[in-house]
Amino acid sequence: MLSDDLIRQGQHVMTVCNACRYCEGYCAVFPAMENRLAFSKGDLTYLANLCHNCGECLYACPYAPPHEFAIDVPRTLAEIRLGSYEEYCWPGPLSGAFRRHQLLTALALALAAVGLLFASTLLAGRERLATAHPGGDFYRVMPHEVMVAVFGGVSAFVLAALVTGVVRFWREAGERTAVPMPRLALTRALGDAVTLKYLHANGVDCTSAEEVRSPWRRWFHHLTFYGFMLCFASTSVAALYHVGFGWRAPYPYFSLPVVLGTAGGLGLLAGPAGLFFLRRTRDQAVLDPAQRGLDEAFIILLLLTSLTGLVLLVLRDRAAMPALLIVHLGFVLALFLTLPYGKFVHGLYRTAALVKYASETFPSRSHEEHEGSRSSRTNTQT
Ligand code: SF4
Ligand code: SF4
């Protein structure tokens, strides 16, 4: 939760930055900050979720530790972000999961889900697991209706939890739920979200430490995000085939759902693996140590869900298919259940913050002017 101490620390940092304004060209956080004279809890959670933790402002700051002002914007905003996930979580009693979510708890949850699915499939008939199913017919292992009931029910709960969290965040930030938004502002916000504009706030490559730049953090984020979206598209097309046309899975290797799912799965292998490695090698000064478990648990669950899905695809005609299917579904179930209580929420809150930022600044040209000053500062610095 957002403690009074953390709010005071956020107010201290933002007040110093608001007087200094040296970093105003780096990202949307600083122009949004300059629109305010005081910082409420809602302002701080908005600014914190606008921050992409690129690290630029820490390396530029003459007041960073060991200076007595101890200005570390990326870490302070990261701590407030974690507090905001807990603050707006639904149902509230589950907010503690954000700090307890570790690699081991994620794996334990996935194994419990696999065990539960194994046990229920065995109860439904031992032959479902023991027999090779010609053509990789998944529904002989777990009937389509059962899959829809389990994953549809979980998805409905997850959607309700995620929407409630975003609405709480939006209201605390001072917005009404239904606010008319200029279409161009919305387009700009979504464009900034899907291109990860502020992840490399200096306009070139992402920083991993002072004077250390590489494009990998951006590329691994893109692979993860677009991999996830391709898998979602694959599932949606498969559902349309099944419900709309009566075409049952399994689909051929070069069918649309399989091609989308394979491309998405590969993205979800490479992206999370790269992010896991980068998380461990980044400058720890910009990170909130309390979020290490949260980050790694989400990354590893994504990676293992993808890995088990691809192995299942390759071996779907083999006798091991029923066991592989259950293992894969167990990981999918664990991933779904943890979405509202894990790192996944940062994408939603950040997008909402970008939409608010676009609505605050549109049609003002202020940020483009700031970006002009950023370019000239970058040139001066280099
Ligand atoms: S991070 Fe430091 S240099 Fe940048 S605006 Fe804040 S006080 Fe100024
Ligand atoms: S996005 Fe980068 S420059 Fe902007 S506040 Fe966050 S760490 Fe600082």
List keywords for this structure.
disordered C terminus, 67% helix, elongated, 2 strands, two-stranded antiparallel ribbon, mainly alpha, binds iron/sulfur cluster, 382 residues, 2 domains
**Proportion of residues in helical segments:** 55-70%
Lateral arrangement of strands in the main beta sheet: 1-2
Main sheet summary: 2 strands, antiparallel
Write down the overall mean pLDDT: 90
Total helices: the number is 16
Instruction: Tell me the distance between the termini.
Output: 40 Å
What characteristic shape results from the CA principal axes? elongated
Structural class: mainly alpha
Ligands and ions found: iron/sulfur cluster
What Rg, in angstroms, do the CA atoms define? 23 Å
User: What is the succession of H and E elements?
Assistant: HHHHHHHHHHEEHHHHHH
Low-pLDDT regions: 365-382
Number of domains: 2
Would you report the number of β strands?
Answer: 2
How much beta, percentage-wise?
Answer: under 5%
